[in-house]
Amino acid sequence: MAKQQNWAAAAKKYEQATSIDPSCAVYWSNLALCYSKMDLLIEYKTAATKTVKADPSFVKGYVRLANAHHRLFEFEDEKETLQKGLEVHPNHTELTKMMTNVMKEITSREKFQQVLLTVPDVKPILLGGVAGEGLSDMVEPLAAANPCFFGLKRSVLPPISKKYKDLSKVSSDGVKDVIEAFFNGSVKAQWVLSSDSGALEVEGYLPNDSVPVMRVSLYPPTGFQYQTDQHPQYHNTLTLEDKRSIGVVLMHRLLREHGFDMGKQLHEMIMFGLVTELTKVSSRLCDILFFLCT
After folding, report:
1. Disulfide-capable partner of 39 in 100, 232, 261, 269 (CB 3.0 to 4.6 Å)?
2. Closest Cα to residue 52, out of 86, 29, 76?
3. What does the pLDDT look like over 35-85, one tens digit per residue?
4. Cα torsion for 67, 70, 75, 80, to the nearest 10°?
5. CATH assignment, 7-109
């Protein structure tokens, strides 16, 4: 059945096989493969863990378990699994390659900053969070010089949130928690400014999840791009319109609250020569500020 790629039927057969002989690592490994193909990531990790437990010398167990951790964005756990596998199989090509890749991933993720985006209690956050820094001496002159701009009535959340206020209009129950969190609730966000390209990369998570629902990049030459396939559950149930809207509201909420910090970081990157294409980075900064103020 696995050869015919009927993964659900094959999974049932291997579930039966593991219940009959739970000591057989091959059964657990094949069951893990089925779960992987079905995008059942928690079940994939569980079956892969039992593969290693059944036979610690079976190299496929380490490969599958490391891959499960990778797909769940559990990179430190992936590293630990690969280390154990390499202790048993020191020169294994695939394990070595996976270790190289996960170390690059861990290093790149050290540059990410994590924030929790919440709904402001009373007033909307202005100027990318500059007011939240307590810089009243900066805000007050701006408000005096631009009374119309600062006098505008604004909602505490981006205007697009109103579109998803009524969850009864959401067609799938499986995505209501995502819609509610991103448009009208709390969202965990991780972001980084690339010193190579000047792109702003953002990931948006439900507060208790390890896998991002949305990955967004703002890069002027190619524009605004979003990605959801890293989270199969929501990738397969959200509509294209919902995906686009989630990407927009994630970026808008992040820039409302932290755009000022991003601007400072870009400025420092320019001042200290951490980026080489000054004019392009400056244009990207203008893009970010424009996005922030709309």
Report:
1. 232
2. 29
3. 999 999 999 999 999 999 999 999 999 999 999 999 999 999 999 999 999
4. -10
5. 1.25.40.10
